[in-house]
Amino acid sequence: MTLAAPARLSAIALALFCAGGLAACSGAPSTGGGLAPGLVSQINAPGAQMDRQAALGIINQYRATRGVAPLTADPALDAQAQTVAAQYASTGNPPARPAGATNMRLSAGYTNFAETFSGWRNSPADADVLAQGDARRAGFAAVYEPNSAYGAHWVMLLGQ
Fold first, then answer.
1. Is the N or C terminus of the chain more exposed, i.e. has fewer CB atoms within 10 Å?
2. Exposed, middle or buried: residue 149 (CB in 10 Å: 0-12, 13-18, 19+)?
C-alpha cells in the first residue's frame, strides 16, 4: 500500500514524535527532562502512587511505533495489578499471573515508570509483550516496600 504524500508526512511526524518520547526515557535515571511528570514521579516513598494514565500513554506510544492498536485502561486489571504488586513487594518473589490476565510484566528497583518502561522496552521478550497484538486492555500498579532490597515493585497486566 502506498500512502499519499500528506498521509506519509503525518505517519513520519507521528513516528518521529513517538521515537523522541521513547528515546527520552532510555539511559540514566531521569530528573524530568521533557517527560510527562507522571512518568518520572518517584515511587520510592511510602504511600507514593503511580500515574496509570501516563504509563498507559507511553505504552500506547510504543505500541503505535510497532503498528499495534492502543490499549484501554481497565480498572479491574488495575486492582489485580495492585494485589500482585503488593504480594511481589512483600515476598520478593515473582507472583503467578492472575486469572483473566493474558500476560504480565514485573519489574523491581526502578524509582519511576519511565525507567521501568525503558527496562521493558530494551528487553526483547518484554518489548514483544508490550506490543502483543491481541491485548486490548491494561492494568498497572506500583508498590514501595522500604524493607525490600528493591524498594519499588512494578506490575503491568494485559488482557484481551
1. N
2. exposed
How many CB atoms sit inside 10 A of residue 76's CB? 13
Pairing of strands 72-73, 103-108: unpaired
Residues 6+ apart with CB under 8 A from 17: none
Q: State the helix-helix crossing angle for 52-65 and 113-121, rounded to 10 degrees.
A: 30
For residue range 64-91, list pLDDT tens digits in order.
Answer: 999 999 999 999 999 999 999 999 999 9
Instruction: Please report which confidence band the pLDDT of residue 33 belongs to, taking 50, 70 and 90 as the band edges.
Output: low
